[in-house]
Protein: Adenosylhomocysteinase
Amino acid sequence: MTNFDVKDLKLAEGGRRRIEWAAREMPVLRQIRERFEKERPLAGIRISACLHVTTETANLMQTLQAGGAEVVLTASNPLSTQDDVAAALVSYSEIPVFAIKGENNTVYYKHIHAALDHKPHLTMDDGADLVSVLHKERRELLPNVIGGTEETTTGVIRLRAMAADGALAFPIIAVNDAMTKHFFDNRYGTGQSTIDGIIRATNILLAGKNFVVAGYGWCGRGLAMRARGMGANVIVTEVDPLKALEAVMDGYRVMPMKEAARIGDVFCTLTGDINVIDRPHFEVMKDGAIISNSGHFNVEINIPALEEMSSSKRLVRPFVEEYELKDGRHIYLLGEGRLINLAAAEGHPASVMDMSFANQALSVEYMVKHAAELKKQVYSVPAEIDSEIARLKLAAMGVEIDVLTDEQVHYLNSWEEGT
Structure:
């Protein structure tokens, strides 16, 4: 195989060992892979995947391949690729990979085009960049495409906007909508891995710090919970009154970002929106404030404004840029404002990605079977898939649950009985 672009194939052996280690924590995906090997439900299907190139993603790619799919993988973020994993997929699984950690935007989009050269029947996206390029620049490929899946909140938002505009050319299953995805991946995965990334980048003690969490969706909930567990004083900023109320009831201080900016020591955005930390916030931040992002794109922090306000900047640690403002204060930006849990750490633990990627694998199988029946819109993961993944996960953990008796089923489906 010659059609790939990775950093160094000599890294492959180390990548293979780490992929195998992750597999030990992914029992649900392993069960799906064993079934796929027997049934081959994806035989002859070409899949172009734009995902974070990690050990967990490698196990998903191998599962799709076991089901008969011809898979190509490219990165969904320039800083999230694990180069040894990319090399291992090429060397040992013969899966074409186009991804190099630290690639610039030009190379990033060149790699997306290379993945689309595969002429996919199905797309698999994390952030909707692949689908966006396909619709804007590679429309000649659209007749081949029967459907796709989307991994994350940001991508689902973009795709629903496309569908509302009548621009979406094929059906998409929003994997992020699955309860076994956002309840666990977003909350526990993002919570733990974001803290991991911030600490790896800075080596600071969180205990006693004012830790500002921008956004109280499932990712924000998880990060707030983990930051409090590390001893931080957690402050939440929100625009949604219901989520803000929930944060108050969960015991956090809630205030506008303009107020939080004055007292925060560490900031992290997880909203999916633009300029959440902006010029007015930089103007009032403490000397030494640390800012980071765990949303999909590096737009949540207004980096151009920070650049304009600064007299100089320098890299003081890997993934830590010191901006010296014109008034002498210093602000520290982590991971170029990109996903800090993947830029400076390894992303979500394999055991939580087990459920997310089980949703991906089963949603692809569902799309192959039902694409002809689906309209050009964004669908949630079918409830039966969600429940089956939860059942398989519980079984793998050795956890048993009760089963309704016939009497209980009858009672729940009747209206005659009361007090």
